[in-house]
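Obj: model holo form, ligand = flavin-adenine dinucleotide.
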Amino acid sequence: MNVVRSNRPKVCVIKHSEIIVIGSGIAGMFAALRLAPRKVTLLTKTPSLTGGSTAWAQGGIAAAVGLTDSPQDHASDTILAGAGLNVSSAVEVLTSEGADRLNELISMGAPFDRDDKGKIILGREAAHGQRRIVHAGGDSTGHHVHKWLSELVVNTPSIEVKESAFAWELVVDRNHICGVLIYQHKEGWVFHQAPFVVIATGGSGQLFSATTNPSEATADGLAMAIRAGLKVADLEFVQFHPTALSMSRTSKDSPMPLITEALRGEGATLLDSKGHRFMKDLHSEAELAPRDIVARAIWERLIDGDRIYLDIRDVLSRNLDNRFPTVQSICAEAGIDPKIEMIPVAPAAHYHMGGIAADESGRTSLQGLWVCGEAASTGAHGANRLASNSLLEGLVFGHRVAEDILQKKAYSKNNSEVCVPIIPELNEKITAENLTKGLRKLMYEKVGLRRNASDLESAIASHQKLAKKIGAFETRISNRSPTFIQVREWGELRNLALVGHLVAVASLKRCESRGAHYRTDFPNLDPGLAIRKYFTYEDINSNSEGTSFDETKRKSKNAISN
Ligand code: FAD
Ligand code: SIN
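Output (holo structure tokens):
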């Protein structure tokens, strides 16, 4: 049993579920819908279903649904962006089943944008060889798709939704999941037992002080999996989006509003402060080069003291007003009129290619536990995700996880008990919020877009100090009952601290530059390192190199079993 550590009070409330899905983004909701009529408990830590990145998505969903397109072409673009690290079977699943899933959504009535003749409109984004991005409400795709899925979820009687429910820890017994320890707003600590658990907790963007991600993106599922001893993969690969608005944040810690890549797909250009279109000098696709290349080019100019602007005036003058309402309202809030002014932009952490290692059915290395969406690392994205492939990933792998679970028989229920963790009482100076702020700043400065050994080593030393501090706080006995927000803030801090540390460790171990991972001390790609790296908690603590698995080894060694 992994969470019984002392003679602290045992959790008194025990509930049973057939299947628990943690996360109400596109991956979790789609998996839950596909699991009907089996009974599903769908958890989210936010007070409504809208938490997570899905509702914030702008550009759209990529899939080979156009007449001139094919899954093979979509796969080639995905692999080209992935810089030699994609798992080809996962790419094949994503791109071939992607079109099927999207066509199903269209026939179910998903609200995608259509032209005057009723045909679905296809947009273009960076590194896509052709137009294949389906969108809704122009650049409000996430909002519309999420709302549509949420309505289906709340109208499905077999899905029980639990909001304000923070998943704290996976409960494991002899390589089998037994359930999840949860803190619920009204009930407090609850041990939710279930033979099948799906992690769909999204990404890790909150690791960095500059991010496009909402406050929920705190790597909770990934951290729980690491503590439970699961294999995790490719943690060093964090994608920075090139164009986030570089002004008008309510505070330095709030997310940076995204200025969608779809604008560059329609011809928007990037200019330096002299008005020079610098991307033309750097790549044949100019502004539509892979994301990591554009993001780094902007970053390098910014640290040299320049300012970089996205010019969308021409795009808006071509009667595309209804296509970009979100960006227009972001600009209006920042006091910019994008029809006559240029938009100052900077890169921001956006998507984690690394995550819980999973096979093409979302199976993890723990029996009874599946993962889908951004929390997973199937290898479909390689070292750099192609734009608009992640909403698609949520649909394709959410569906596959459900199909796989539907074929399994539940094993007998476990009656174990778990202990209540200590949520420390902090003082005014040392708060979870302040510790998290320090960590995020450190990650951005030392483990961000450009990395080197000395920065990474100093980040790792700081992480180790933070881990000690967190550990020391957790031994202080407290008599008070924590509030939901205290549990969530402390839980998110310990998750970010653990995952941040591992991102730095994995970055230090990869001595080359590939896709989103760039080392100034190893600026070239090393063809010998086209290998995904898997780690477990034990590897990290024993300072081991992790395990390298190429695709053949992965299959033959059956790294993922369920
Ligand atoms: P999320 O949608 O992030 O959902 C995670 C869920 O898990 C939430 O419900 C959260 O509350 C819950 N959760 C997390 N931790 C816990 C916990 N401990 N306990 C209980 N619940 C928990 N991708 C595209 O393909 N196309 C786009 O156009 C696009 N645009 C984007 C724009 C922005 C601004 C951002 C931030 C991302 C964008 N992405 C886009 C990426 C994409 O939105 C995400 O990768 C995707 O939505 C992730 O979906 P998910 O279901 O895995 O997780
Ligand atoms: C965007 O609209 O630029 C984001 C698309 C994505 O991250 O896939």
